[in-house]
Amino acid sequence: MTNLNARIFVAGHNGMVGSAIVRQLQRRGYQHIVTRSSKELDLRNQAQVAAFFAEQQIDEVYLAAAKVGGIHANNTYPADFIYDNLMIETNVIHQAYTNGVKKLLFLGSSCIYPKLAAQPMLESELMNGYLEPTNEPYAIAKITGIKLCESYNRQYGVDYRSVMPTNLYGPGDNFHPENSHVVPALMRRIHEAKLSGLEEVMIWGTGSPKREFLHVDDMAEACVFVMNLDDTIYQENTQPMLSHINVGTGQDCTILELAQTIAKVVGFQGRITTDPIKPDGTPRKLMSVERLKALGWQAQIDLESGLSNAYQWFVEHQQELRGI
């Protein structure tokens, strides 16, 4: 049940997802939102996390803190991705339990599912095949987070839930030219092509792979919705091996269609072409969102509107983003 006076810790509030959760909680009237930057609190440090929870008397936790990045970053720094994420999850979840936190929501990633999972991907596909090698360390860390929540629920009777988002985008995204995901990467390239007067932007591969994209504000709304589901309703719709819930739109588009929509939003008048020599990656990644729809929530922000919102944020923050 909703408690507007609860002391809620949003771990990772400076990130795209965490900041969206804070905005959502503020809009709903929550009075006591607790945040700490990574400089103030290193979630990888067990002693610091223990001291924080002992002092703050937290009632609920949204665990959105994570080390994230695109294919290049995951491939280059696999040890960092598995170590940092494992430490964050284990410290926060254990100290939440130790200090009497009854409700916690862990945010995972769609990369937890096998590389060749049947489409759309059901929650039951978890651990049903080999992972995508390029981000396997990150995926294993996220699977561990789910299993931590399941295990603490079983052993200690707490209520720690997990949601698995599809590809996210929106205000606060990472627009780094090398370490960003596909939406901000394409948005920045196409924006710079417009400013330079280029006639063409080429994207990797054939443009035919299909991906699903969810605006971060929809994701934040889904997080608060799942956190506040009545215990009985939630438990009736989850089982020990299905204790996580997919969050997505249930719709996908090709990478070429995505690039063309971004070009429309940006106002780029040139051509979007493909480079079939470059790799395509997995042909399709679509989440099944039937369980979440059955619980009463579905995404509201369509792709073009969401991309327009993300682009507006990008343009407004050009000065601070110029150096990356």
UniProtKB/TrEMBL annotation:
This protein's UniProt keywords: Isomerase, Multifunctional enzyme, NADP, Oxidoreductase
Organism: Vibrio ruber (strain DSM 16370 / JCM 11486 / BCRC 17186 / CECT 7878 / LMG 23124 / VR1)
The NAD-dependent epimerase/dehydratase domain, residue ranges: 8-233
GO molecular function: GDP-L-fucose synthase activity; isomerase activity; NADP+ binding
Catalyzed reactions per annotation: GDP-beta-L-fucose + NADP(+) = GDP-4-dehydro-alpha-D-rhamnose + NADPH + H(+)
InterPro entries: Epimerase_deHydtase, GDP_fucose/colitose_synth, NAD(P)-bd_dom_sf
Task performed by this protein: Catalyzes the two-step NADP-dependent conversion of GDP-4-dehydro-6-deoxy-D-mannose to GDP-fucose, involving an epimerase and a reductase reaction.
Any single GO BP term: 'de novo' GDP-L-fucose biosynthetic process
Membership in a protein family: Belongs to the NAD(P)-dependent epimerase/dehydratase family. Fucose synthase subfamily.
Entry protein name: GDP-L-fucose synthase
Positions with a binding annotation for NADP(+): 12-18, 107-110, 142, 165-168, 181
Binding site for substrate: R189, W204, R211, D280
Any matching Pfam family: Epimerase
EC annotation from Swiss-Prot or TrEMBL: 1.1.1.271
